[in-house]
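We were asked to recover a plausible sequence for a given structure. The inputs and outputs are reproduced exactly as logged, with field labels preserved.

PROBLEM: sequence recovery
POSITIONS: 150
GIVEN STRUCTURE:
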């Protein structure tokens, strides 16, 4: 394996991990939308789920551009670290908007940590950095909005 192959493998693994985080977020927001009573927040959650789906496609496209296929198992160590969204379901069953929003905030904070780690630790080209930075900025904007729901 060449150094370029090693680098590509690292990038693909990282992107697959981020895809796993985004999948968790997409499912989390979809479930949150089903359980929250406030129509405005419900509409926002549906929009956030759609945005995560778009981000997934963008990362999958980048993996394909690198000549690799996406990891159907949900992606590597980075994805395995992110389990905040899995705990959200218990918050949703109560229908408590504040608890649901709090769980979403926890999920977004975990996603931000993983994106920032990826941008700091993985050597990527400018297009990849730009893509991740754009997605990260959007996730941060959602986090700000979630904090206003409280």
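RECOVERED SEQUENCE:
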């Amino acid at each position: 394996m060449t150094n370029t192959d090693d680098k590509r493998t690292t990038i693909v693994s990282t992107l697959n991990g981020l895809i796993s985080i985004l999948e968790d977020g997409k499912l989390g927001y979809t479930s949150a939308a089903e359980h929250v009573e406030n129509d405005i927040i419900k509409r926002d959650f549906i929009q956030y789920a759609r945005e995560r789906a778009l981000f997934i496609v963008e990362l999958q496209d980048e993996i394909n551009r690198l000549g690799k296929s996406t990891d159907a198992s949900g992606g590597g160590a980075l994805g395995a670290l992110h389990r905040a969204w899995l705990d959200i379901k218990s918050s949703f069953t109560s229908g408590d908007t504040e608890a649901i929003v709090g769980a979403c905030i926890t999920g977004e904070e975990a996603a931000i940590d993983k994106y920032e780690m990826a941008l700091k630790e993985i050597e990527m080209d400018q297009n990849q950095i730009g893509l991740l930075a754009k997605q990260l900025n959007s996730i941060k904007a959602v986090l700000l909005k979630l904090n206003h729901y409280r």
